[in-house]
Request: fold
Amino acid sequence: MRARRVATLFAAPVLALLALTAVSAGQPVRSAQVVPAAASIPQFDHVVIVMFENKNYTDIKGSSKASYLNSLASQGTLLGKSYGVTHPSQPNYVGLFSGTTAGVHKDDCLSGQIDRDNIGNQLVKAGKTFKGYSEGLPKAGSTTCKSGRYARKHAPWAFFKSTSGAATNVPYSAFPSDYSTLPTVSFVIPDMCNDMHDCSVSTGDSWLKKNLDGYAQWAKTHNSLLIATFDEDNFTSVNQIYTAMVGAHVKAGYKSETQANHYTVLRTLEDMYGLPPLAGAANKQPITDIWTA
Reply:
């Protein structure tokens, strides 16, 4: 097991002028001061991020209907101050993936592709690997808006120009049983029932245990990480969400009080792999208090 440390990218804050191409729905996004990269984040061989839907923090924390999600917090770390960036669902997924909602304000199926940088494209350009695994996706590379219980609005890589192809946009059935063959970073999106959107908390909690507990246990001894989180809460103004992290180098039974949202998680991943922070992630402090020495 190893924990390679990421070298500091910036010696001091510099002004970031990120001239980003806007999609037709919005305007270019410019960040404020760039926060220096953290040097104390382990670089994992594999990170898997699984996202659920529209549940308040209090619907999950301590709930008997979410016993497995709560067990992940006991095995690892709970982010006690984790928040979505907006409502409704789709812009939260876009934000986590690219550091900006990119002018996306609704859940409507986008008619075109977003042509801007994102964590998937960053990883590939840096010689790493990325895939998005979506339950119910009809076939690799499909850009269909909806198919059965699959909804593209929950799979942002499917409508970014650089990550929508068959190499990166794949069905969940392609998720490997040999976890060592996983990409550097993977997103896993359950279907509209198993992500708790159309079905119960207990349904999604059981799905997570059945499908990803094997990876969670393996990750602890194989320099890997599981992040289980939500897109947003159930449309309150607080927008607090449940986020748990478990794996190697993660404090067990720890509750972090670090203020975090989707941009914070993105910034942590970017610092982890020495990637330049994108848009709204540039002025966020990465998560540093949850790692063991």
Notes: Confidence is low (pLDDT under 50) at residues 1-31. Helices lie at 57-60, 67-75, 89-98, 119-125, 201-220, 262-272.
